[in-house]
Design goal:
Blueprint lengths: L3 H6 L1 H10 L6 H37 L5 H32 L20 E6 L12 H7 L3 E2 H7 L6 E2 L2 H19 L4 E3 L4 E3 H7 L17 E3 L4 H5 L5 E4 L5 E10 L18 E11 L4 H18 L4 E5 L11 E9 L4 E10 L3 H6 L1 E4 L7 E2 L1 E9 H11 L7 E2 L13 E2 L3
Parallel strand pairs: 4-8, 7-13
Antiparallel strand pairs: 1-10, 2-3, 5-6, 8-9, 9-15, 10-11, 11-12, 12-15, 13-14, 16-17
Helix pairs in contact: 3-4, 5-12, 7-12
The protein binds one RNA strand of 96 nucleotides through helix 3 and helix 4.
RNA sequence: GGAGAGGUGGCCGAGUGAGGACGAAGGCGCUCGCCUGCUAAGCGAGUAUAGGGGCAUACACCUCUAUCGAGGGUUCAAAUCCCUCCCUCUCCGCCA
């Protein structure tokens, strides 16, 4: 959520930012509502002050044993007016809030201009895509060949866009999760948490998925519950409506969770394999930081996610998302894209974002400096560290061999009982 | 799922069947000052958050409003009365 003060003082800045994002928002209506809100607020509060004072008088009269019926009758009409104004104000406030919640964040000045994916800017590459003496296969071919990925059975028990992992694949998934968590907790200073994967509406509003993107979520019928689309939601909301001590910043939490996405509007995309699923696993990194440091923290966060790819010796590149491709709540996002030989493409495997105070304002996440009287909003960041299923995809495709087996990255072997190739028992 | 108890400031805890002086006693903690060889104790003062206005700028000051789990209602006036919901705890049932 944007600061409504910014809207008042620099409407042109907001307007320009929204134009860059290709966001369609009626700013004038919003500014008008805000003005009305403040005017009504002043009016009704003046009346309330009057009423409060008069009520005190009534109390004193009664204490002295005087008759106050004339005075109270008079106050009745005042209260009626207050009530009417309060109702009007509440309505305006609801409208304003509703609108405000649908406005995306303002992109950071360093974010490149652009329409969409193709305008994203490559920042750096790491590693060299492997050369094959044979046509490299796609992950789903490799995975199904060794009976690790079972799409038919998953379709039977759930539907399309689900997978059943068997044997080595299930174990590999588990190994990756442990590996990632170990690196982040032991080397990057994150505290591991394991949150609920079902959350309420308030949490989703707090991180920005709601009210705008309801159709992307799985909603549990007849309840206020939703399946999380990412651990970002429960983990960021740990500190909803909380004021932190400045000394605890930067605070880093990491979490492994399943993630659930309805993938509405993605029909026909990535229908083969496990790139795009209704349920997948992700290790997520979330940071709560001092506003002055959030961009340095973003760079740091990216290196934490990159470390996993580097340990697994998977070639990747880092891109900065352009204004047109930026997520709703983000001010700046780096995507990590891993090389997939089967597709001969770099594909997203992590997304690292600085939300500045956008989520913090929605969720009420603040910090207090030792001397300061007032608290301030923290900046929140998060990034995948990494998407587990896609990491498996990258390993299968990058480490495949002519005989159809797959080498296991050295860093991962200890997590697989020393196995060096897939399939293993 | 059944029965009961309860949610008050950073924490503990009064107040809630007489609705009015209650943003809320008292204590702890914290901050500043005094005192004090040092520490502890003692003494004094202060100590919630958010929003609006004064403002052209400020987290400085003044002022108003709201907030006693949340939302509604009654009333001139609600922490206190009524309704709905949420959460916590205890016992029973069920269950991994």
């Amino acid at each position: 959520m944007l600061d409504s003060k910014l809207l008042r003082t620099h409407p042109d800045r907001v307007r320009e930012a929204l134009r860059q994002r290709r966001a369609n928002v009626d700013l004038d209506a919003l500014i008008g509502l805000d003005e009305t809100r403040r005017r009504l607020t002043t009016e009704v509060e003046t009346l309330k002050a009057e009423r409060n004072q008069a009520s005190q008088e009534v109390a004193q009269m009664k204490r002295r044993g005087e008759d106050a019926t004339a005075r109270t009758a008079e106050l009745g009409t005042l209260s009626q007016r207050i009530k009417a104004l309060d109702e009007e104000l509440a309505m305006i406030d609801r409208q304003l809030q509703e609108l405000l919640l649908t406005i995306p964040n303002i992109p950071h000045a360093s974010v490149p201009q652009g329409e969409g994916e193709t305008d994203n800017v490559e920042v750096r590459r790491w590693g060299t895509p492997p050369q094959f003496a044979f046509p490299p296969k796609e992950h789903w071919e490799i995975g199904t060949a060794h009976n690790g990925l079972d799409f038919e059975t998953a379709a039977k028990i759930a539907g399309s866009r689900f997978v059943l992992l068997r044997g080595w694949a299930a174990r590999l998934e588990r190994a990756l999760i442990n590996f990632m968590l170990d690196v982040h907790t032991q080397e990057h200073g994150y505290t591991e948490v394991l949150p609920p994967v079902i959350v309420n509406r308030d949490s989703l509003v707090g991180t920005g998925q709601l009210p705008k993107f309801e159709e992307d979520l799985f909603h549990l019928a007849g309840t206020d519950y939703y399946l999380i689309p990412t651990a970002e939601v429960p983990v960021t909301n740990i500190f909803r409506d909380t004021t932190l001590e400045e000394a605890v910043l930067p605070l880093g939490l990491c979490a492994f969770t399943p993630c659930f996405r309805s993938e509405a509007g993605s029909y026909g995309k990535d229908t083969k394999g496990i790139i795009r699923q209704h349920q997948f696993h992700k290790v997520e990194l979330v940071r709560f930081v001092h506003p002055e440091r959030s961009y340095a923290e973003l760079e740091l966060l990216v290196t934490h996610a990159e470390a996993i790819l580097q340990r697994l010796e998977l070639p990747y590149r880092v891109v900065t998302l352009c204004t047109g491709d930026l997520g709703f709540a983000s001010a700046k996002t780096y995507d990590l894209e891993v090389w997939l030989p089967g597709q001969a493409k770099y594909r997203e495997i992590s997304s690292c974002s600085n939300f500045e105070d956008f989520q913090a304002r929605r969720a009420g996440i603040r910090f207090r400096s030792p001397g300061a009287k007032k608290s301030s909003l923290v900046h929140t960041l998060n990034g995948s560290g990494l998407a587990v299923g896609r990491t498996m995809v990258a390993i299968l495709e990058n480490y495949q061999q002519a005989d159809g087996t797959v080498r296991i990255p050295t860093a991962l072997q200890p997590y697989l009982g020393g196995a060096t190739t897939i399939p293993f028992a």
